[in-house]
Amino acid sequence: MTVQGVKYMSDFEAKKAILDIGRRMYDKGFVASNDGNISCKVGPNTIWTTPTGVSKGFMTQDMLVKMDINGKILMGKWKPSSEVKMHLRVYKENPDVQAVTHAHPLVATSFAIAGISLDAAVLTEAVLGLGSIPVAKYATPGTDEVPDSIAPFVNTHNGVLLANHGALTWGKDIYQAFYRLESIEYYATILMYTGNIIGRQNFLSCDQVNKLLDIRHKLGITAGGIPPCSPEETNARDVVSTADIRPSEQTGTAPALKGVTSIVRPGENQAPAGCGCGSTPVRLTAPEGQKAVGAEALGKAKEEIIAEVVRRVIEGLS
Hints:
Layout: E1 2-3, E2 6-7, H1 11-27, E3 37-43, E4 46-49, E5 65-68, E6 73-75, H2 84-93, E7 99-103, H3 106-114, H4 124-130, E8 135-136, H5 145-150, E9 159-162, E10 166-171, H6 174-197, E11 200-202, H7 206-218, E12 236-238, E13 269-270, E14 283-284, H8 291-317
Parallel strand pairs: 8-9
Antiparallel strand pairs: 1-2, 3-4, 3-7, 4-5, 5-6, 7-10, 9-10, 11-12, 13-14
């Protein structure tokens, strides 16, 4: 159906697409139990949306609810999610939006809980197709606080992280909205690996970011925000800092990553504990003549720790 030059999905197409996106969302682990909600426009003032209390992976068409953008139920036996309020607010704030998706993808939700925006200029695809993803202030689910918290971003960005909650995306159709949800989780995962596991990120320069923004504009993507960049052409950043060193280890030895136990601490060779013979672990101290060699080893310690972390992650994924 086309209204005033805008093409909308039919009722059948919209319901079929919502079920498809629901299964994809569930299969990817973006939602657990009955989490998440999806909506799609079928006219300037009407939408189909998901019901409350039903897993997104096990919905049927008869469970979906048709509403107007003021929240009046037009068709359906089930109740809509209380979180449909934020969907309705998106449509009111930006009439060009045709669909909205909300879920709790693990890594992106972790950033939302930490209150960290996804805006580091490290991934070309994120700058091009997604832009920066801000964190909307905390709001109690199901209340009018939620739509109020996201309203400032609807016309300038492609999605937001909901503080201590999850992620919300919107788009010109239901698949673009879902692809943006996928991109948010992928972007968050990249930032987690480079920023918190590998401990090193190469930031794009302002010149590089500006070229990507020009391409984004030519692709017709007018929203997304501008991620912060560095004026330097070469700006590799070592993410590990003194804040990442355990207090007991801030003694001049190589830093240890938070949450990571190194196999052997630099400069400390210990006999294995609990060998079954009642012995006490003994610290072996290097002779004076070997201290210069030890200093050189300390310089490599951080790289070795990072390499060990990466090895463990790879083994865990294989």
